Amino acid sequence: MAKTVPMIITNSNILIKNKENDEFKTFSMPSVNPVSNIPFYHQFAEKIAQGQYYFKEFMKNIYGNKLSKYIFAIIVPDDTSRLESIFINEFFVNSGACKAVAQTTMAQALSKTDDSYISVSKSTRNVILEYVKNRQVLVSKIYDAVSCDPEQVARDAKKLHIDIEYKDVRVYVNNFNLNMDEFMDMGEVITPKQFMEKIAVIDVEKL
Fold first, then answer.
1. What burial class does residue 36 get, using C-beta atoms within 10 Å of its C-beta: 0-12 exposed, 13-18 middle, 19+ buried?
2. Which of 4, 173, 201, 207 supports an S-S bond with 104, CB 3.0-4.6 Å?
3. What is the pLDDT of residues 141-176, one digit of tens each?
């Protein structure tokens, strides 16, 4: 039976759950320099074969040589585009470091118990406001990370979906990247530790 390996694509690197415990190890691609407003993994495309080799060797050090029995449960930033999502999947599947991949966004992974909630997060380029119901993103609103007005985001959160007009919906502030200072009063703040605890055990069938 295939085993699941939770992974998080952050604003600057990739975190992979350790085999022996709930801690996460950091994979950083060699020779990747930060570029403003561009996710770091875009640079993987310039040296795909090299990147896949380094990643596979990294995984061998954690999980051993029999990597084909694992499924990667990849948690991506909330503003990941469809094309970026495809590239991410293809990069890992073709690395030879897993059997298959399943992908979901950070917003969808914030709660395993709430039927519905609002998520607000920030990537390297955007602030993302989303309404999640039954683990599906029903509405998403994106703002420029540099110029957005936190007060406007808070106002929009109250009218993001018709459901919100008729019932109280919990708001989660995803502070995984420690970049949400101006949004802290919008709702319940999720710390990096809390987020990693939430995804330490993932049921791939529910992604």
1. exposed
2. 207
3. 999 999 999 999 999 999 999 988 888 899 999 999
